[in-house]
Each structure stands twice: as structure tokens, then as C-alpha cells.
Amino acid sequence: MLRSIQVRTVLAVPETPLHHLHWRGKLALSLDCFICERTGRTTSFELGAERAICSGTRETGEHYTAARIAAFDQTQEHDRTALQAIVDYWWAPFHDAIRDQPAHGLSHTPWVRHHLGYYCPEQEQVGEFSIQTNVLRPQSTACQHCSTPIAQSHDVPELRLLT
């Protein structure tokens, strides 16, 4: 069955100096994979790709899976940037024999990582970083070129099963 998940991340951003913070079109998400029949697999998504890549198992390694980023939006308010993605993926019930547990439409321990980029106007260089669910908050990120603070994460990214 087709499932959809909404992933929303909100970052506090200083108004000056502007580092042109943007989403890099990449997302990693933990999903239960019906292809390798394992729960909590890291699944990598890239905007525009028709399929995602499941981390698989030690024996099988990575493999393609029926999943994609269906929509993405980035909104900017005065001191906040909100990133929102809708991920569509195919899911079928199975039992993970290694962990001895059933699969779920949204993993029991959902995890997400947004990949972001920026442009340093002072050094005229690009940089990148990621925000993920399993780090201590608040998490601050500074420009790797000029050390100016560019983003702070106060809240864990939200995951919501839509269908």
C-alpha cells in the first residue's frame, strides 16, 4: 500500500549576515523496508529521483526501494526557516525475523536527517551541514568559513504519517 509521511524541520536563523540557507535536495529517513524485510532501515532520498536507496542488510547491502520525495517546500519567516517534505513510499506488512518484530507504516523509532547548504558572502564559499532527530538540542551550526552562526535547531524534526 502507498504511504505518505510529512517531515517538518524548523530552524532559527539570524537575520544578518545572510548565508542563503537552503535545502540540498537530500533527505535520510528510517523506514521499515518490505523488500529486505528489515525494520528501521536508513533510506536515502534525493529530490527528483524516482526511487530511494535502502541501507539493506550486511548480507545484501544497499538496494533500491519504491519511495520518493513527492513534494518539498521551504518557507522563510523573520528569524525562522521551515523545511517540509512529503515522502511517498510503498509498504507491505512483514515480520523482521532478525529483530523478531512486525513492521509498521512508520518505524517505531522514526529518524530523519535533512541536508542543508549555504553560501558564505564573506569568503565567497559554499558549505553544508545536516540536521537530524537524534542529537541534543539546542544544536547550533556556524559557517565553516567565517564562523558566523547560521542556524540553530531547538526542536526535533517532526514526522507525521499521512496515509
Number of folding domains? 1
Helix content: under 10%
Ranges with pLDDT <50 over ≥5 residues? none
Radius of gyration over alpha carbons? 17 Å
Task: Summarize the SSE layout with pairings.
Elements: E1 2-12, E2 22-33, E3 38-46, E4 52-57, E5 61-65, E6 67-77, E7 80-90, E8 95-96, E9 101-102, E10 112-120, E11 125-132, E12 139-142, E13 149-153, E14 158-161
Antiparallel strand pairs: 1-7, 1-14, 2-3, 2-10, 3-4, 4-5, 6-7, 8-9, 10-11, 12-13
Q: Could you describe the 3D structure shown?
A:
This protein is mainly beta and 163 residues long. The protein has one domain. It contains no helices and 14 strands. It has strands at residues 2-12, 22-33, 38-46, 52-57, 61-65, 67-77, 80-90, 95-96, 101-102, 112-120, 125-132, 139-142, 149-153, 158-161. The strands form four sheets. Strands 5-4-3-2-10-11 form a six-stranded antiparallel beta sheet, with no helix packed on it. A hairpin with a 4-residue loop joins β2 and β3 (38-46). The termini are close together. The mean pLDDT is 90.
